[in-house]
Specification:
single chain, mainly alpha, globular
């Protein structure tokens, strides 16, 4: 079932954030500790809120 779901591509503004986390915690987000995964998700959510308000592209 999960394999049938489309892969969400990161927003352009997310790429530097993802690269920073990958450089720090490893290239595969599936291997990140849970606290790092939650911190990344929180930062992405904050970035998306800014995007919705038109503050980032």
């Amino acid at each position: 079932m999960a394999a049938d779901l489309p892969v969400r591509r990161p927003m352009k503004a997310e790429v530097p954030l993802l690269e920073r986390f990958m450089d720090t915690y490893g290239d595969d987000p599936r291997d990140w500790p849970e606290d790092v995964d939650l911190r990344y998700a929180a930062e992405v959510a904050a970035l998306r809120e800014k995007w919705l308000r038109g503050e980032v592209q």
